[in-house]
Amino acid sequence: MTDTGPDMTEPQGRVLLLANGRGPGRKLWKKLRARCAALVCVDGGADSARKLGDVPDAVLGDFDSASRAARSAFASVEWVRLDDQESSDLDKGLGWVAEKGWQDVSVAGALGREPDHALANIGLLMKYRGVLNVTLHDRRQDLFAIEGCWEWQPAGEMRVSLLPVFGPCTVTSEGLLYPLRGLKLEMGVKDGLSNRACGSRVRIECLGAPLLVCVERGGGGEPVFAPALAK
Question: What is the model's pTM?
Answer without folding.
Answer: 0.92
